[in-house]
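Summary: Need help interpreting a holo structure output

Steps to reproduce:
1. Submit the protein chain below together with the SMILES for S-adenosylmethionine.
2. Request a joint structure prediction with the ligand placed.
3. Inspect the structure token block that comes back.

Expected: a single structure record containing both the chain and the bound molecule.
Actual: see attached output.

Input attached:
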Amino acid sequence: MTADTDLIEMYKPIARRHDTITEKLVRKARHAALIKLSISKNSNILDLGCGSGDMMYELMSRYKKHKLCFTGVDLSPHMIRKAKKKLKEAKKNGHHISLVCRDCIEHLETCGEYEYDLVSAAFLLSYVDSSELFPLVNTALKKGGKFVILTPSDNHLKNLEKVFFKFVMLYPSLSNWGSIPKIILNKTFSRTLPLEKTLKLLHEARFSKVKSRRKPIMSHVRFDDPVSFLRWMYKSVWAVRYSNIIREDTKETFFNEAAKYLEKNNVKVVNEPVRWGKPFKFTMPIYNIVAEK
Ligand SMILES: C[S@@+](CC[C@H](N)C(=O)[O-])C[C@H]1O[C@@H](n2cnc3c(N)ncnc32)[C@H](O)[C@@H]1O
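--- attached output ---
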């Protein structure tokens, strides 16, 4: 299997499940990003890695009378199917919607120059090579067109990943070691870059203005305890990459031992100490970047 087919497989259960926690985490950031945009009538909009279509759905609801023309691109057929269902109603407002099941780089390579007024990439940069993506987006945008990015802060994610792998190594009996070489071979580790590096790549891709708030949008959700947090993290954020690492029959022990390990070693998850059995608040710092051609 290639990394792409892995990704498609792994998004299957995610597409099926409506994950209310993930939605709660990203909704605030999506609002904050879209509220600042002003979109003209008949705009041509491309949503890269559109998932189940939330970004487009929100734009359609905000600009009911604008007769917008949307193209949503996603690698996962399951996500595209979900988006089709979600966006069916919106067509009645006169918006035009086209959903394409394809790799976003491939799509950009075949679309024309100066085609779009707006391109969005919400929570996509962890999966693609930004240095390849950004110049292609620039070409596809009209002059003055905008590229809107939402992306989690890489430090916090990488720190969590580091702790996760350390724990896996310390407790080999709880893990499925066979899946690790595949992860390494397929390079399915997060490709999220530090903010400064992302901004640099946008400048290099010849965007004329690049704006980002230095401070990320802090979205948070509360869990009854750290074990519930780890269970959610594993089946949502990490599911795409690491879903086979934990053995099915030792899953609960893994989460319990991991929560105790975090507490014992005083590991903070985005500044929040872990206390076994106590309520736990998880914060996800999300950057919103807008680049103009
Ligand atoms: C975390 S989800 C975000 C979905 C949506 N943008 C949102 O904000 O809810 C990432 C999406 O990117 C898609 N994806 C990952 N790599 C891709 C690629 N190379 N081309 C197109 N879509 C991709 C996944 O299938 C998934 O639906």
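--- end attachment ---

Reviewer comment: The beta strands are 44-48, 69-74, 96-101, 116-122, 141-152, 209-212, 217-223, 268-269, 272-273, 280-292. DSSP finds twelve helices and ten strands in the chain.
Status: needs-info
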